Amino acid sequence: MNILGVIPARYGSTRLPGKPLADICGKPLIQHVYEKAQCSSFLGAVIVATDDERIIEAVQAFNGNAVLTSKEHPNGTCRVAEVAENMNVDYVINIQGDEPLLDPRMIDEVALALTENEDIVSATLCAPLCDEADLSNPNVVKVVRDCRGFALYFSRSPIPYFRVKTPLPVYEHIGIYGYRKDFLMKYVKLEATPLSTAESLEQLKILEHGYSMKVVETAVSHRGPSVDTLEDLNAVRRILG
């Protein structure tokens, strides 16, 4: 069972340009993510997939593995697929490059979900959403699942709508994605879909094309935050400092 971990890292972030190279306590952000990923019990290799030579140089400086990919990719998944295409692996895990507080046990949870059944072609994680303010925050993606733990829908809006009072929790989607390699190669070639475009959530393309995604509730405490803004970056610096 060969599992590859790929960290997509684009230099030109809209809200925080050069984000992968942002210094956090003496290390670039991408190094924090890479070192956490290497602590996974399941990954045979970890590779940074980037569009910029500066990120290649930074990764090589800490003896990490990095591959220069096309600048034309519309999203991180396509960048991951370019790296995985010619590698002899069975499974690929897309590890978000803006998660310096990543717990490697989350990678292991995705790997276990992905490999427990040959019929599972993709997998990800969720956690109960505890902060009420996040319910209406479009940057916090929510997910609802069926009785078997497969995704029914992802949305930036609060879902489900509670017409009837119930103790049912709302789940936040945690963006670590695992794929069977053969499905990943198929997935990136699928046409964009109306809901994935409307919500700007590429994982909806999987559901709209009739495929499934297993969503596992993580047993790991979610430390957050991911780094999308300067405020996030400073918050992570305070946590790690």
Q: In summary, what is this structure?
A:
The chain is α/β, with parallel strands linked by helices.
Task: Give me the secondary-structure topology.
Blueprint lengths: L2 E7 L13 E2 L2 E2 H10 L6 E6 L2 H9 L4 E3 L7 H9 L6 E4 L9 H12 L6 E7 L13 E4 L5 E5 L15 E10 H7 L6 H6 L4 H5 L5 E4 L12 H11 L1
Parallel strand pairs: 1-4, 1-6, 4-5, 7-11
Antiparallel strand pairs: 2-3, 6-10, 7-10, 8-9, 8-10
Protein described:
The N and C termini lie far apart (37 Å). The strands form two sheets. Strands 1, 4, 5, 6, 7, 8, 9, 10 and 11 form a nine-stranded mixed β-sheet that branches. The protein has a two-stranded antiparallel sheet with strand order 2-3. The relative contact order is 0.18. The protein contains eight helices and eleven strands. The model has no long low-confidence stretch (mean pLDDT 93). Helix content is 29%, strand content 22%. With 241 residues, the chain is α/β, with parallel strands linked by helices. The protein has a single domain, classed as Spore Coat Polysaccharide Biosynthesis Protein SpsA, Chain A (Alpha-Beta Complex). A hairpin with a 2-residue loop joins strand 2 and strand 3.
Helix content: 25-40%
The total count of strands amounts to 11
In CATH, the topology is named: Spore Coat Polysaccharide Biosynthesis Protein SpsA, Chain A
Question: What would CATH call the architecture?
Answer: Alpha-Beta Complex
Mass-distribution shape: globular
The Rg value, from CA coordinates, equals: 17 Å
What are the low-pLDDT stretches, counting only 5+ consecutive residues below 50? none
In N-to-C order, the SSE pattern is EEEHEHEHEHEEEEHHHEH
CATH secondary-structure class: Alpha Beta
